[in-house]
Write a structure and sequence with these properties.
The protein is an alpha/beta fold. Helices cover 51% and strands 21% of the residues. Helix 13 packs parallel to helix 15. The longest helix is centred in the N-terminal third of the chain and has 62 residues. The two termini are 26 Å apart.
Length: 663
């Protein structure tokens, strides 16, 4: 499919930029960043400490609860034992109390010394007067009357450290006195203290073991988390941060710049022609080259800048900066300049360049997404300008992006309904008698809102968004249908259609061409497919079989823009071509320019020597036409004869040509 009157030449890579001036390191202190890096471990440690403390408090609560239960149990046990003990002593001492035998009563009470808890005991007669007593501590006197003990009418009394009991001494069913016993609770508290200390020690040991296990497990988990974090945030090939790390870091830096009212810049980097190297030498060589690229970038950026590999051959640099626009542009050129020296990998030297785009916050974008989008837009503009350069984002680029998106959507719709798409035809004339022998189909597109969209712009967008194949088939169907109508008008005239590289690489290309001829009813010999040298070289092996099959069907094959591409003679020998079209750049200076004359003469001689016909395109003057006729060109095309025209105008021209004489 052709896009001209004037076909654009393939864009060439630009020359390397001049060595930029050194960029000063103006990065701020890294205390905030260090604090951010330490925040997660500190928080994790606090959580672990809080968990261990909570477990310790819970265990301590259990120990205290058990101690409280043990105290209540011991108290009840002591009380029951003391009641039984007091009842036995009261029964044994009843006779001595009845007969007021103080000696016997003292002996019986003295037997209580065997119980270490008993501090004192006394027997009072029926009148409440002291009859006999036992004191473990002789310095602690007993009350001389029962009323003085304060136990009159009370069976027992509890103090913090003392338990007091009073039991009536019964003889023959009658009260003959009272037994008073005072017991110490020291032994109970001692046992409780021992049990509490033992439980506490056990709890502390268990807690220590649990804490050690938790800390050990936490250390293992933390190491695993670090490894997982590294895997999740590190590019496996280069060791740089990956896209996930890039997004996190850029979000943090944008927030920091917003808070501190500082400036932030983003550099998007894409390697030029990396895919061809990867395909030629393998992924191992490509990975090695990416590692070298990473090292070179690390050597040229500042310590405060962050580098990430976003995937494939794309890298990004985030820099905190107070640089002005001039210094920022120099920084970008410094990055581009690091690619000047060739790379050595798998025993071969490679020259790899890069295209870079720079956008700054807040000048070029107000948020993270806008910053990424604008840096990416600037990078693609660098590629459009010839690659091997760094471009600063400009607001006008968004207009170009918006227009491209609009064209893409409109083109998709146009391919579905055919609205606005049309073909113009530029006639081809026989050199010997200037008779009309063919026409080349040229794409035209007029949109209701966009107006007339240039063929170059439409085809470029179609190639970028994957519509070029569908657009190419639309052109072929339309051109074949028009040529079939010409045949019906009595003028069997060949139509030439340009085919793109993607269309030729389509596995269904041959089948689609045959279907088109069958549906339109156009004989195969009236269709000529034009391919540029670049398309032929890119599809030499895969397309050879298809081209041979097309030739066998009777379809003519032509090489368009001959002399501007690879100019390899291999395809002239191996492929079934029938025609060469001399590019207009060689016709422009005829007949005055000697080099152009020499080139044209050589091309004509070469073509005729190989049995190929020659078409000269871009013929604009009678002198050019006369010279080309003398050199033996077979067909001529250009403004001197006719400009591209709508199909209706071509029909009028065909009728005039028929009226003038037979084709």
């Amino acid at each position: 499919m052709n896009t001209r009157e004037t076909r654009p030449e393939k864009r060439r890579a630009g020359l390397a930029a001049a060595e930029p001036e050194a960029v000063p390191d103006t990065g701020p202190d890294t205390a905030a960043q260090a604090a951010d890096d330490n925040a997660t471990p500190l928080l994790s440690s606090r959580l672990v400490f809080t968990g261990i403390l909570a477990a310790g408090l819970a265990l301590m609560t259990v120990v205290l609860a058990l101690t409280a239960v043990d105290h209540w149990t011991a108290r009840q046990s002591m009380l029951e034992d003391s009641r039984v003990e007091a009842a036995i002593v009261a029964d044994n001492i009843s006779a001595a109390v009845m007969f007021r035998d103080a000696n016997t009563a003292n002996e019986i009470l003295g037997a209580l010394r065997a119980s270490p808890m008993v501090q004192a005991a006394a027997a009072y007669d029926a009148t409440g007067t002291l009859l006999a007593q036992y004191r473990r501590d002789v310095d602690q006197p007993l009350a001389t009357t029962l009323a003085d003990t304060g136990m009159y009418g009370l069976p027992e009394r509890h103090g913090l450290m003392v338990l007091e009991l009073a039991r009536t001494v019964m003889v023959a069913g009658e009260a003959s006195g009272t037994l008073y016993v005072r017991k110490s609770k020291q032994a109970v508290y001692t046992r409780l203290a021992i049990r509490f200390a033992t439980a506490l020690l056990i709890a502390m040991v268990v807690m220590g073991l649990a804490a050690a296990m938790v800390l050990r497990s936490r250390a293992a988990v933390r190491d695993a988390e670090r490894r997982l974090h590294a895997l999740a945030h590190t590019d496996a090939v280069t060791g740089l941060g990956n896209r996930h790390a890039f997004n996190e870091r850029l979000s943090t830096e944008v927030q920091r710049a917003r808070t501190l009212s500082t400036r932030l810049a983003l550099v998007y980097i894409d390697l030029d022609n990396f895919k061809s190297l990867n395909d030629t030498f393998g992924h191992a060589a490509g990975d090695g080259l990416l590692r070298q690229v990473a090292r070179r970038l690390q050597s040229v950026v500042r310590s405060t800048d962050a580098i990430a590999r976003l995937g494939g051959d794309e890298f990004a640099v985030i820099l905190r900066t107070e640089l002005d626009d001039t210094a920022l542009q120099s920084y970008g050129q410094r990055i581009v300049g690091v690619f000047r020296a060739p790379f050595t990998e798998v025993g071969h030297q490679f020259t790899v360049t890069c295209s870079a785009g720079i956008a700054a916050y807040p000048g070029d974008a107000s948020d993270m997404d806008g910053l990424i989008s604008h840096a990416d837009t600037a990078m693609y503009r660098a590629k459009e300008m010839g690659k091997n350069r760094c471009v600063r984002f400009d607001a006008s680029m968004n207009q170009a992006v918006a227009r491209r998106q609009t064209i893409e959507h409109a083109l998709r719709a146009a391919l579905q309904n055919g609205e606005g798409l049309a073909l113009h035809y530029q006639p081809l004339y026989a050199a010997r008698d200037t008779s009309l022998v063919g026409a080349e189909a040229l794409l035209r597109w007029t949109h209701s809102e966009l107006g007339a969209v240039s063929p170059l712009e439409a085809v470029t967008v179609a190639e970028d968004c994957g519509l070029i194949t569908a657009l190419g088939y639309w052109v072929m169907r339309t051109a074949c249908a028009d040529a079939a109508r010409w045949q019906g008008m009595g003028k069997a005239m060949r139509v030439s259609v340009n085919v793109s590289a993607r269309q030729l690489a389509d596995p269904l290309f041959l089948e689609r061409v045959m279907d088109t001829l069958r549906e339109t009813g156009l004989p195969a010999h009236l269709l000529e497919i034009e391919l540029t040298e670049t398309v032929l070289m890119d599809n030499m092996e895969a397309g050879a079989q298809t081209l041979h099959r097309l030739s066998q069907l009777g379809i003519h094959l032509a090489i368009d823009d001959f002399g501007t591409g690879y100019s390899s003679l291999a395809y002239l020998r191996q492929l079934p071509m029938r025609r060469l079209k001399i590019d207009r750049s060689f016709i422009r200076d005829l007949p005055g320019q000697e080099h152009s004359r020499t080139i044209v003469t050589a091309i004509v001689a070469l073509a005729h020597g190989l049995g190929l016909q020659i078409t000269a395109e871009g013929v604009e003057t009678p002198e050019q036409a006369d010279y080309l006729v003398r050199q033996g060109c077979d067909m001529l095309q250009g403004y001197h004869f006719a400009r591209p025209m709508p199909v209706e105008q071509l029909h009028t021209l065909l009728q005039k040509d028929q009226a003038a004489g037979p084709a």
